[in-house]
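Reminder to self: tokens first, then the designed residues, so the page reads top to bottom the way the pipeline ran.
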């Protein structure tokens, strides 16, 4: 039969496991946040003033672009802008 001390130790272990999971989840959210904000900012710039993409270092890729979609690239980022409805997609390679 478990003693009071054994039950206490099991409780402490469970609390540590739950706390570790919470900390891990928070770290994942914090790491993703700046990249998500960057995507939102780029989408906003692209939809309102796509000509500004060149000013911040993006280059229109004629090979990937078509009359329907303009593709702008910079490093690992790609931005697709639809000429039909102005929809913007920010892609990470």
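Designed residues (93 positions):
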């Amino acid at each position: 039969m478990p003693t009071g001390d054994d039950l206490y130790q099991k409780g402490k272990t469970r609390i540590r496991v739950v706390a570790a999971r919470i900390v891990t989840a928070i770290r994942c959210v914090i790491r993703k946040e700046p990249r998500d904000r960057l995507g939102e900012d780029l989408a906003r710039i692209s939809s309102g003033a796509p000509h500004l993409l060149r000013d911040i270092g993006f280059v229109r890729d004629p090979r990937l672009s078509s009359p329907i979609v303009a593709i702008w690239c910079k490093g690992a980022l790609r931005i697709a802008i639809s000429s039909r409805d102005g929809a913007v997609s920010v892609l990470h390679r």
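The two ends are 57 Å apart (CA to CA).
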